[in-house]
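Subject: two folds for Thursday's group meeting

Dear M.,

Sorry for the delay on this. The cluster queue was jammed most of the week, so I only got both jobs back this morning. I'm pasting them in the order they finished. Each block is the input sequence followed by the predicted structure tokens. Could you check whether the formatting survives your parser before we put anything on slides? The first protein is the one we discussed after the seminar.
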Amino acid sequence: MANSIQKGIIALDLEQETPHSEETEAYFDLCREKLGLVPNVLAAYAFNEAKLRTFTEMYNDLMLGDSALTKLEREMIAVVVSSINRCFYCLTAHGATVRQLSGDPQLGEMLVMNFRAADLDKRQTAMLIFVEKLTEAPAKIVEADRQALRDAGWSDRDIWDIANIAAFFNMTNRAASATDMRPNEEYHGQAR
């Protein structure tokens, strides 16, 4: 199990010799029921249950909370940000989710390689162009970038959501890369 979560520079005891709280065990049971696994990122955060709660609350708010962005669009942001950052964990996990949600086994890989070549609508393309710039050159974001999103049909609230999802994945990509966090093996074959 140790190698399936991470192999690298941070040697946290991810199996935890001390037991998790009932709340964390119930959450992991729910993950097993709904996903068939406990994502390694959650197992990694479980060394500190306060950090696990903070991470999951933010993730759930951004990825499952009220927003005009579809679940697929949110996952598309995760994949494009993770592609730019070359985050193996998130590319694998969120690429699998893109395949599942879209029903298109090629879309995840297309987003990784060149989202501009994917069959996306103008709103989604504008969203990903913004996310790309926000990830690569955040100091260069200007009003014209936000206006391009508005012109494509996104509201100011949507821009807030797009930016926050991109920012979250920029943060998680860096944590995953720093710790050599590895995706669960199951993700590699999902929705193929």
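Second protein, same layout:
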Amino acid sequence: MGNIKTHKDLQVYQAAFKAATQIHQISMFFPPEEKYSLTDQVRRSSRSVCANIGEAFRKRRYPKSFIVKLSDSEAEAAETQIWLDFALEFGYIDNEKHALLYDKYDHILSQLVIMINSPEKWCI
């Protein structure tokens, strides 16, 4: 793990945090009628990716718990992609923003899967 002292040092966390902040920024322009549905849901799921990575990092002593929290993060990342699909379909974001964010979450998902498949590299 090298110089990784906290969850904030993980590249996957940094990528997820940046993506969540970008989602927050673009969702500020969603219509008001989406406030309690799409806007809240995409913000919640994107932030939850980060929160679950942080929780997983703190559960490194217990490989099964570590994997469960990373799996939760993986599910939230996939959910975020679905909300992005809805935002595109409804015309709230353009193809370019959708493709950029969707690709970021594909990368986040691949990093999470690598960690899930090799917990011994991360657990203490």
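Two things I noticed about the second structure. The chain is about 75% helix and 0% strand. The mean pLDDT is 96.

Cheers,
T.
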